[in-house]
């Protein structure tokens, strides 16, 4: 906001609010504001006020020591900027969406200036002696009292969530006049941004989570009946407080967490307070939600340090505030859940970040932006910012002299508590300066690459072991997908994407860890300064043969005893070390030959074994960037036994995950056997075992003799079912009769669910349908499920089985076409059986609800998938009952998704009318917004699925031999324009839908909810072309009166007597307002001074 704006001519120095809440839906309140003028031209104060409230009275006062002004009613005006569209000829319709959009933006700009205008003209802006400085003057403060009332009733009002933060504790007294009322006093002593002031009122039950003297008290509030779940869900919060306090003192006096129903977002954080959805509460019997709840609630408490007490100075600094909070959260989760969980999540976050940052994203920090980031941009910032801080921490710790961010973050927290951080606002520059101070490193290159630049590199690594020189030649080449993406755009699109500023080249140190023949790791640091370079990395050991750490390799070592006899003592020691490493992840039952035969454990053939054992003095495996110091994708091709050695010999979770990812590229039964052994060995981290289980489904091919099919069924039957009567049964003969549920081993529980998901991926390559005995096994799992002796809930387990059944029984129309008549009849019988099983599960869930109705959610998703695959009748009535009010909101969202996927706009007039009635009248604002957004998305999904046939271009032959970049761009734009034109033509015949959209769009202009307005506007843009906005009519020009510019009053006229007479002023000053501007000031003449030498002083011809 510019300094010339009238809204910048005053500052708000203090605010006090008195709010009386009637739970019938009426809020009566008074706001007491202290305004400090900063410009003498101030005539009106503009404040933000909801047009839904009624302003009863506005009073002004100015209690100064000299000439105080007593409370006086003031003139005010409450304006609603959201006015109906004007009536004109031609009338405004849906094709006028460009004009409607322009008016919406203008209305929002007007609302940003303030809806409540209060007049302060007439002497309220005045000067007074500055406190403690009689020779200086300052503007007198103005006290404004606004009395208002908000009648909510049954309407949906955004921002009304009925506990206000208090630093001095809660004072609780009975109302002096009405014994049925209670008064709570709250005081916010710390300076806090207005968006971080919240309160909630309700019949809460209170639980003191922690009252130890070692840290600040933590208090929880919930609605009646949820106290036991509150105690279970928040028991870890004292550990969060203790962990974060080690970085800096808690900036407030306590922390309160309130759980309420029907919250718009999952968690809203305010000063000393977090308002959280009660959906996050869970009993001790729930496993899955316990992990996610710890993440959400921990972040809410950590944000009290940074996010509430410390905020960003500009919108471009949002990344550092969000990033530091999420980085601390990651460190706490490492402390709470273990290093393996932290490393696994870090690897997954980096993979997602690299996948998204391929040219379509903006940099983390864009100096100069004037608008806050939208929801998708904020989600990407929250993903990339903590990852960038992780690599910055590694950079500071390795290249500098500090301990990384563990020294930077406490300095920032200390600066905020000691008022050394101006306004408690953090900037990117301040953060980088602190990093430079503690490490002594220049942060310019790092910041330009990862903070002020976008994109992530792609590294391609190739190795070559030179036996004569005992060195490894490592070739590293770098490509930037973001640059390639932008270069593929047209010139016009490139100009629009100039703000994305992709980094041209990433440079820095890359760590290469070589596990040599004896298994000892040696790290090498290579500097990446060019796009392509080969590095010669020396070896430190010189053994004649590589000692593989795997048991498969050990079997071939045993077969070459004549060679082993020539080994020296060092090599013997290396072999013992390799055997010791392999023993950590060994599976002893497979040492027996009969057991190996029953499991069909494959071994390398003679050629592969000789190649593996003949790598004289070679390395076992190589890790590139083992500490995740780069946000990159590394393409590294190695031989399969190297990945097996890495899986068995490296204890790092990331190394094991990378090995499994790369092993999937080799369709070998040996690799499949190693993956199966990984599932069986419980020394592996459970998430590694889950990844191995899912990877086994890729080996369900004839090339691997369907070994993946056999191993998945064998694993599930062995680990989670009653023992089979035939130990050497083939895959189609394996029968799974599940044991009663026992989820006491959490790791085995998650592995069990992964195996069930993998079973649904076992498809017959000939028919593209899941093997029959696999589908029977999945149905038996839900039929024979027994949870009577299990102390944990099986809700999520049943949902996983239902999802697997849905995937297993879904067959494409093309796959059904190749089935014979008997096979098709058998498929229909099995499909009916599966449908009955799922319907029965959903019926039971209605009678005995699962936790958050997860069984019904999975069943609805299965029904929708069957409808889309043409296996179930497209009957909207099956979904409509789940969309009605009163159902759990996530259930309603899934039902609306299915309704719009199966019956997109224009297919059914009754469904269309129902959807728009939900948008207008539903009591849940969340549902109204969700359905409005889903309308336009469902049309685009129908277009992508080819259901709008007129929008699909006809096939043809194109000559692309001499096609230039400009021609290719023109062809792509032409195709897009043709698709848009065909889509709008298709909806041109659907007049009922267009009329519904038009009526709701025009009506939404007067509604205060911005999301619904813009979602309807987007829908209109999709289905309708636009018309040019007509020019305004005749313009009447009025001449404005000339207003003279006020000037300062001249000094008074004085006559001075030179003979010692008194000095008399011709005009004595009076106490009046110096800033009155109701009348223009007329300039006076230049003052005259008359010197009288006769000894008499006169003034106005009167003798003194």
UniProtKB/TrEMBL annotation:
It comes from Cryptococcus depauperatus CBS 7841. This is Transcription initiation factor TFIID subunit 2. Transmembrane segments: none annotated. One of its GO terms (cellular component) is transcription factor TFIID complex. Functions as a component of the DNA-binding general transcription factor complex TFIID. Binding of TFIID to a promoter (with or without TATA element) is the initial step in pre-initiation complex (PIC) formation. TFIID plays a key role in the regulation of gene expression by RNA polymerase II through different activities such as transcription activator interaction, core promoter recognition and selectivity, TFIIA and TFIIB interaction, chromatin modification (histone acetylation by TAF1), facilitation of DNA opening and initiation of transcription. GO terms for biological process: transcription initiation at RNA polymerase II promoter. Its main location: nucleus. SUPFAM superfamilies: Metalloproteases ('zincins'), catalytic domain. It is found in: Nucleus. Belongs to the TAF2 family. Keywords: Nucleus, Transcription, Transcription regulation. It holds the Pfam family TAF2_3rd. Residues 454-637 form the Transcription initiation factor TFIID subunit 2 Ig-like domain. GO terms for molecular function: chromatin binding; RNA polymerase II general transcription initiation factor activity; transcription cis-regulatory region binding. Residues 642-937 form the Transcription initiation factor TFIID subunit 2 TPR repeats domain. InterPro entries: Ig-like_TAF2, Peptidase_M4/M1_CTD_sf, TAF2, TPR_TAF2_C. Residues 1062-1081 are annotated as: Disordered. Signal peptide: none annotated.
């Amino acid at each position: 906001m510019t300094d010339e704006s009238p809204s910048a001519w005053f500052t708000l120095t203090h605010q006090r609010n008195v709010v009386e809440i009637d739970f019938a839906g009426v809020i009566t309140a008074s706001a007491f504001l202290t305004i400090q003028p900063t410009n003498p031209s101030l005539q009106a104060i503009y404040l933000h006020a909801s047009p839904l409230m009624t302003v009863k009275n506005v009073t002004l006062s100015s209690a100064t020591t000299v000439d105080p002004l007593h409370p006086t009613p003031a003139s005010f005006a409450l304006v609603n900027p959201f006015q109906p569209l004007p009536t004109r000829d031609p009338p405004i319709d849906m094709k006028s969406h460009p004009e409607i959009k322009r008016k919406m933006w203008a209305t929002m700009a007007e609302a940003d200036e303030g809806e409540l205008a209060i007049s302060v003209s007439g002497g309220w802006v005045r000067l007074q002696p500055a406190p403690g400085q009689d020779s200086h003057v300052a503007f007198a403060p103005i006290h404004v009292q606004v009395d208002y009332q908000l009648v909510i009733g049954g309407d949906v009002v955004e921002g009304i969530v009925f506990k206000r933060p208090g630093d001095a504790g809660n004072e609780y007294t009975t109302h002096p006049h009405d014994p049925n009322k209670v008064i709570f006093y709250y005081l916010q002593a710390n300076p806090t941004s207005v968006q971080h002031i919240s309160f909630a009122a309700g019949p809460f039950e209170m639980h003191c989570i922690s009252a130890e003297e070692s840290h600040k008290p933590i208090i929880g509030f919930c609605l009646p009946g949820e106290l036991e779940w509150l105690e279970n869900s928040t028991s870890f919060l004292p550990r969060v407080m203790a962990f974060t306090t080690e970085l800096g003192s808690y900036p407030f006096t306590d922390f309160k967490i309130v759980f309420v129903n029907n919250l718009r977002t999952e968690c809203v954080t305010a000063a000393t307070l977090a308002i959280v959805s009660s959906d996050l509460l869970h009993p001790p019997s729930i496993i899955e939600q316990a992990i996610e709840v710890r993440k959400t609630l921990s972040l809410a408490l950590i944000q009290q340090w940074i996010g509430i007490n410390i905020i960003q100075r500009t919108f471009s600094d949002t990344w550092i505030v969000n990033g530091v909070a999420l980085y601390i959260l990651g460190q706490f989760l490492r402390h709470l859940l273990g290093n393996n969980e932290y490393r696994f999540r870090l690897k997954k976050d980096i993979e997602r970040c690299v996948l998204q940052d391929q040219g379509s994203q903006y940099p983390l920090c864009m100096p100069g932006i004037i608008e806050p980031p939208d929801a998708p941009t904020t989600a990407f910032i929250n993903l990339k910012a903590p990852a960038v801080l992780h690599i910055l921490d590694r950079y500071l710790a390795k290249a500098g002299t500090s301990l990384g961010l563990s020294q930077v973050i406490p300095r920032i927290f200390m600066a905020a508590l000691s008022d050394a951080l101006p306004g408690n606002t953090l900037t990117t520059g301040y953060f980088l300066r602190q990093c430079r101070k503690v490490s002594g490193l220049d942060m310019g290159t790092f910041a330009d690459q990862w903070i002020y630049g976008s994109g992530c590199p792609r590294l391609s690594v190739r190795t070559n072991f030179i036996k004569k020189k005992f060195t490894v030649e490592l070739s590293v080449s770098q490509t930037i997908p973001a640059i390639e993406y932008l270069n593929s755009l047209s010139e016009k699109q490139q100009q629009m994407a100039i703000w994305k500023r992709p980094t041209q080249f990433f440079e820095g140190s890359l760590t290469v860890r070589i596990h040599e023949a004896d298994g000892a790791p040696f790290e090498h640091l290579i500097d990446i300064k060019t796009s392509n370079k080969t590095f010669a990395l020396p070896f430190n050991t010189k053994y004649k043969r590589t000692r593989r750490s795997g048991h498969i390799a050990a079997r071939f070592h045993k077969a070459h005893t004549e060679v082993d006899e020539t080994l020296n003592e060092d090599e013997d020691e290396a072999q013992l070390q390799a055997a010791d490493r392999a023993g950590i992840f060994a599976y002893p039952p497979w040492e027996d030959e009969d057991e190996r035969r029953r499991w069909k454990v494959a071994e390398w053939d003679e050629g592969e074994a000789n190649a593996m054992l003949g790598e004289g003095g070679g390395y076992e495996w190589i890790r590139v960037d083992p500490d995740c110091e780069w946000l990159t994708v590394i393409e590294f091709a190695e031989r399969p036994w190297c990945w097996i050695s890495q899986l068995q010999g490296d204890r790092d979770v990331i190394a094991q995950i990378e090995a499994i990812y790369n092993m999937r590229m080799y369709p070998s039964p040996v690799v499949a056997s190693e993956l199966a052994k990984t599932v069986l060995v419980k020394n592996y981290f459970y998430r590694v075992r889950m990844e191995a289980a899912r990877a086994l489904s890729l080996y369900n091919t004839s090339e691997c003799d369907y070994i993946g099919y056999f191993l998945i069924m064998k694993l599930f039957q062995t680990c989670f079912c009653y023992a089979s009567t035939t130990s050497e049964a083939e895959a189609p003969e394996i029968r799974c009769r599940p044991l009663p549920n026992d989820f006491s081993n959490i790791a085995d529980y998650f592995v069990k669910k992964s195996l069930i998901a993998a079973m649904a991926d076992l498809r017959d390559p000939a028919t593209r349908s899941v093997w029959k005995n696999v589908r029977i096994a999945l149905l038996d799992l839900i039929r024979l499920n027994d949870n009577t002796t299990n102390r944990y809930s099986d809700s999520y387990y049943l949902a996983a089985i239902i999802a697997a059944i849905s995937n297993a029984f879904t067959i494409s129309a093309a796959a059904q076409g190749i089935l014979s008549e008997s096979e098709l009849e058998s498929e229909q019988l099995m499909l009916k059986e599966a449908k009955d099983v799922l319907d029965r599960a959903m019926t039971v869930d209605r009678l005995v609800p699962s936790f958050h109705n997860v069984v019904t959610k999975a069943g609805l998703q299965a029904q929708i998938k069957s409808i889309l695959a043409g296996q179930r009748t497209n009957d909207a009535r099956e979904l409509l009952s789940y969309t009605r009010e009163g159902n759990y909101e996530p259930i309603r969202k899934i039902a609306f998704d299915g309704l719009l996927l199966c019956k997109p706009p224009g297919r059914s007039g009754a469904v269309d009318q129902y959807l728009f009635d939900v948008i207008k009248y539903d009591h849940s604002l969340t549902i109204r917004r969700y359905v409005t957004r889903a309308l336009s998305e469902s049309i685009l999904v129908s277009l992508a699925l080819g259901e709008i046939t007129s929008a699909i271009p006809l096939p043809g032959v194109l000559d692309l031999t001499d096609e230039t970049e400009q021609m290719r761009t023109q062809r792509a734009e032409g195709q897009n324009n043709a698709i848009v034109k065909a889509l709008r033509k298709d909806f041109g015949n659907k007049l009922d839908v267009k009329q519904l959209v038009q009526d709701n769009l025009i009506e939404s202009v007067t509604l205060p909810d911005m999301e619904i307005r813009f979602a309807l506007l987007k829908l209109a843009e999709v289905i309708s072309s636009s018309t040019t906005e007509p020019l305004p009519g005749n313009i009447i020009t009025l001449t404005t009166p000339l207003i003279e510019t006020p000037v300062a009053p001249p000094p008074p006229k004085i006559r001075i007597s030179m003979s010692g007479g008194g000095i008399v002023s011709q005009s004595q000053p009076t106490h009046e307002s110096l800033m009155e501007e109701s009348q223009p000031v007329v300039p006076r003449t230049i003052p005259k001074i008359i010197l009288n030498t006769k000894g008499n002083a006169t003034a106005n011809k009167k003798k003194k």
